[in-house]
Amino acid sequence: TEALGALKLADLRPRHVEDAMVRLSTYKAKRFRGALRDALNEAMRAEIVDRNVAALAEPRRHNPKPKSILTPMVLQAVIDAEDRPVFRALWLFLAVQGARPHSEAAPLTWGSLVVSEGLYWYRGSKTMAGQRPRPIDPRLIPELEAVRIPGCDLVFPTSKGTMIGERTLIRAWKQALARVEA
């Protein structure tokens, strides 16, 4: 491969593989090392090489950026700064109910809400254990009703009346955080 240059197979050492991986993204480095390791295993079976230098090379470690902790003050600031009513209602719902954004909140429908003894309840989980009805904080109801679109069953619809997609949710959350951090 071009990552290893014009090295002969007999001259290939683990440090060459490690040096090549440094120039690649973590994902590509993992794939590169895996493919080279598989190829060199075949070469060992065919008795072309004596050892698999890719297996001896240290894998590249992923060092993710530390995630910031969302404090109640920051969360409240995000909700207060949100100028899009649907997302304001969604952030509030997620904060109060502890629901999963894309699998529980985004597909939530008015038909899945039940009013019993003056309280709203919903079934909002993708797991069977979470299918038990959960009460909705009564303070949320006016926020939810404010974004209701007549003829649309979704509680948190897009302007077109469709479900908010996962990418849109992530982008909206990042934008909301950026407004607060700015």
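^ that was protein a. below is b, sequence first then the tokens
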Amino acid sequence: MNAIVNFFKWWIEELARVIEPLTVRRGAAPAYVLVQDGDRFICLRGGRRGMKEIGVVEAGAAAGSDVLKKLKNQVVELRLDQDAVLDKRLTLPSAGQQYLDAILRHQIERLTPWAADSVAFDYVTEGTAPAGDGQVAIRLVATSRDTVAAALGTLTAAGIKPRSIGTAADPLDHQSPVDLQDVSKVERRSSLRRAVAVGMAAAAAIIVIIGGVQTWEVFRLSAESEQVQAAVDARRKVIAEAVA
């Protein structure tokens, strides 16, 4: 029994790992984006014609900003100044793809200038590496936790809780492919696992229902066939008696 449970856990984990990059990259564009630019935030609003600037807010005056007051209870993405973020490409063996998070956490001090307990990072896979089969390309985005905390503190004082934290280097009119906010990453992955589990359960239920319907249909047709055969046999008996 434990082996079956562990198998399904592994299966859900694998499906979630495969689906996650697709859901992040293809997610709906944010309603608002706050782009950190030094000691200020550039506020952009999404629309049919792309992102439109609606104001610039100095970090020191964020708490009383009329522009930020309009963003309360809105879907907001924070994009950190790209000069404060490390953005690099790596190549790792594809055999360890399901353990990428653990591998990167183990090597994060070597890959970044920050200590392991002082760095916030996220990554996305980018398919097969140029080296060929057996390798996977990774995009690693990292910054210090202090940088994230400082930006979040400024926005929290204005009553804003960003949905995710990315880098200004990425296109602003698409959902950020990375999230440097640990809490939201955990929530995102946990929600994705739940969605995968629910989807698998729903698929299993549909298969059971379809199987039950098909079984009933076979039973019904079999019963009808027996009735028809009985009627045919009765007619044959009548004909045989008439001929005799």
